[in-house]
Specification:
The complex is a heterodimer of chains A (271) and B (239).
Chain A (H helix, E strand, L loop, with lengths): L2 E6 L7 H14 L4 E5 L7 H4 L10 H5 L5 H4 L1 E2 L6 E4 L12 H14 L2 E5 L6 H8 L3 E6 L3 H17 L1 H4 L5 E9 L1 H5 L6 H8 L3 E6 L2 H9 L3 H4 L4 H13 L15 H10 L1
Parallel strand pairs in A: 1-5, 1-6, 2-4, 2-5, 6-7, 7-8
Antiparallel strand pairs in A: 3-4
Chain B lengths: L20 E3 L5 H13 L9 E5 L7 H13 L3 E6 L22 E4 L22 E4 L7 E5 L3 E4 L8 E4 L3 E7 L2 E4 L9 E6 L3 E4 L2 E4 L12 E6 L2 E6 L2
Parallel strand pairs in B: 1-2, 2-3, 5-7, 6-8, 7-9, 8-10, 9-11, 10-12
Antiparallel strand pairs in B: 4-6, 11-14, 12-13, 14-15
Classes of the chains: A alpha/beta (271), B mainly beta (239).
């Protein structure tokens, strides 16, 4: 049975879609069967970041409404067939999603894959609450600045009250992923430090992704950053996060863009 | 004891409890209204003019039906001040507001889903004595609102920015208090607020409040307690 993971944040533009693509790809590169689902109905982006925008025929909503079969809508990645994408519909809005519809898609996906990663839209409305509804675990993506951190705090409260697990009295396992982190600026007091963020959110840290040009470059090329440049700082941070997600004990570092010995070792394995 | 801050002119907002007669209409309503009429004509004069709350748990009424019932009662001199145990959606308009019994179970509601707060059927059987302390062993997150009019609230963890604690008694936060804390909300001037680290947006005791701006900067991020002296809210460091 797959683990259903929601990538969420409350605030927009913090890197949910980048994280979904990079982490999904990193897990697949580590040998796992992964499907990434775009829940941002009406404003889909995950297909672009995954480089599959020209291959979208059927989408999530088509499947929930019985227009297409799940197997017709799933897009297998050309670089790695262990990785699949279920794109969102661009022509509909969030109201097209229903709880029954989402469950009818997630249930078969749980049997087909090891990981089902749900890319949540920003906000706390229907799209975001349905993306987290059936999650076993949650990755909360946060930038080291106050508005993002407070929105994450709000999302954590919602994860603890509105998910199926929470309603059953269980807990959704939560992981914090700090993205766009710039150590030099944090040291100068221009952004929150990791300690500040952890102090406010009191949630275990999954990883620290450094601010880097590589992320935008990879997005523009339509490749998850772990495919495009596996030795870059962000890619190594995502590989570490993926291994922590699989239960490995990996020392917490902030990988820089310079290629160190660690990067070389990893690059070879990931290539 | 150091640095006691003097707030500027205080504005007061107060929560107060009042006694009210609760009437619970039962179907068929026409017979019930006639019964009330008979009661008033007999010994029930006390109903006339005194505040009345309608407990609508036994009947299911639309907004217009509630309005009709309230008008009928008004004609007979019975003044309805509030409604209880009905769907929030069916109130509003010119109707009396929905009230909650202050001795009810502690309620924890997400601000975003206030309309969905379920009208709980009142458990009438003998219940064990209500706990006088609400203990929360998880952080209170931004947007969450904890309302506990029956006593103290203790939080083992932080209270996020944008979260809200309202307690009839004192408030204890073993963590950073970043949101709002309102103690003694039922009119208890002896209630206090304690926290291991203060970055609060607002503190209030018995309606007297102080915002972050008026707090002494030297107290920020320290362990403090707040109490009421006369009508002034005072804060002092505990360490």
């Amino acid at each position: 049975m797959a683990k259903v993971v929601v990538v969420t944040s409350g605030k927009g533009g913090v890197g949910k879609t980048t994280t979904t693509a990079a982490l999904g790809a990193a897990l697949a590169q580590c040998g796992q069967n992964v499907v990434v689902i775009d829940f941002d109905v009406g404003l889909r982006n995950l297909d672009l970041v995954m480089g599959a925008e020209r291959r979208v025929v059927y989408d999530f909503i088509n499947v929930t409404q019985g227009v297409a079969k799940l197997s017709q809508a799933l897009i297998r990645d050309k670089r790695l067939d262990r990785l699949a994408l279920l794109p969102a519909s661009q022509t509909r809005d969030k109201d097209a999603l229903t709880e029954e519809g989402v469950l009818s898609v997630i249930t078969p996906l749980r049997k087909m894959f090891d990981w089902v990663i749900c890319d949540s839209p920003a906000g706390i409305e229907r799209g975001a609450t349905l993306a987290m509804r059936f999650a076993d675990e949650a990755i909360i993506v946060t930038n080291p600045e106050v508005s993002s951190v407070r929105d994450s705090d709000r999302i954590i409260g919602i994860l603890d009250s509105k998910t199926v697990k929470a309603e059953r009295g269980e807990r959704v396992a939560k992981h914090l992923l700090v993205t766009r982190y710039d150590q030099a600026r944090a040291a100068r007091g221009e952004m929150l430090t990791i300690e500040d963020v952890l102090d406010i959110l009191s949630t275990p840290l999954l990883g620290i992704v450094p601010e880097s040009q590589e992320v935008l470059r990879a997005s523009n090329l339509g490749a998850p950053v772990t495919f495009n440049n596996p030795n870059s700082g962000p890619a190594r941070a995502y590989f570490d996060a993926a291994r922590r997600l699989m239960g490995e004990d990996v020392e917490m570092t902030i990988p820089a863009d310079k290629q160190g010995l660690f990067g070389k070792l990893f690059g070879r394995r990931a290539a | 004891m150091t640095a006691v801050t003097q707030p500027g002119p205080s504005t007061r907002f107060v929560c107060r409890s009042y006694m009210a007669v609760v009437l619970a209409p039962e179907p068929p309503l026409v017979d019930w209204v006639t019964g009330i009429e008979d009661r008033i004509r007999g010994a029930g004069r006390f109903l006339v003019g005194s505040p009345v709350v309608l407990d609508l748990s036994a009947v299911k009424l639309s907004q217009s039906a509630i309005a009709h019932l309230v008008a009928e009662l008004d004609q007979r001199g019975v003044r309805v001040m509030g409604l209880e145990n009905t769907d929030p959606a069916s109130t509003g308009g010119g109707l009396p507001p929905l009230v909650r019994p202050s001795r009810g179970a502690p309620t924890m509601l997400d601000l975003a889903e206030t309309p969905a707060t379920k009208a709980q059927a009142p458990p009438k059987p003998a219940t064990p004595p209500k706990p006088s302390t609400l203990l929360l062993d998880q952080p209170v997150r931004s947007g969450q609102s904890i309302f506990f009019p029956d006593g103290d609230v203790t939080v083992l963890g932080s209270v996020g920015s944008g979260a809200e604690l309202v307690a009839g008694g004192s408030i204890h936060v073993y963590g950073t208090l970043r949101g709002r804390a309102m103690a003694g909300s039922n009119g208890n001037p002896r209630a206090r607020i304690f926290c291991s680290k203060i970055e609060a947006e607002l503190l209030a005791i018995d309606g007297y409040y102080m915002t972050a701006e008026t707090m002494d900067k030297s107290l920020r991020e320290r362990a403090v307690q707040a109490w009421l002296e006369g009508n002034q809210l005072k804060i002092t460091a505990l360490d």
